[in-house]
Write a structure and sequence with these properties.
This protein is mostly beta strands. The chain contains 1 helix and 6 strands. The protein folds into 2 domains: 47 residues, Thrombospondin type-1 (TSP1) repeat (TSP-1 type 1 repeat); 48 residues, TSP-1 type 1 repeat, CATH 2.20.100.10. Keywords: Disulfide bond, Glycoprotein, Signal. It comes from Odontophorus gujanensis (marbled wood quail).
Length: 129
């Protein structure tokens, strides 16, 4: 009886690993090799591709803010004053992400002129001194 020896797989060397699939953070990379012997000469169950995880420096995280609040009431009941509005930081910047812009804005407001009693302002001012 004539027995045919199975021919071992002839494989090319593994290629270099590919670049990571991402430019930052967690990704995957692969490498391949090629079957050099004809498949009909024997069973070849060797893997021809491998994949593995790769990790690059963390991706930048930009500052994220809530929407602006409504403007506050004017801080005076007459004359010139100011109002403010605020917003909160939802996500602090990390790994070189964009910094947070202002979280408080102030604007002038003017309510009707204050009514003065004759000499009231001057007298108060002298007392304060």
């Amino acid at each position: 009886i004539f027995v045919l020896d199975t021919i071992p797989c002839l494989l090319s060397p593994w290629s270099e690993w590919s670049d990571c699939s991402v430019t930052c953070g967690k990704g995957m990379r692969t490498r391949q090799r090629v079957l050099k012997s004809a498949a009909e000469l024997g069973d070849c169950n060797e893997e021809l591709e491998q994949a593995e995880k790769c990790m690059l420096p963390e991706c930048p995280i930009d500052c994220e803010l809530t929407e602006w609040s409504q403007w506050s009431e004017c801080n005076t009941s007459c004359g010139k004053g100011h109002m403010i509005r605020t917003r909160m930081i939802k996500i602090e910047p990390q790994f070189g992400g964009t910094a947070c812009p202002e979280t408080v804005q102030r604007t002038k407001c003017r309510i009707r002129k204050c009514l003065r009693g004759p000499g009231m302002e001057k007298r108060r001012w002298k007392e304060a001194r």
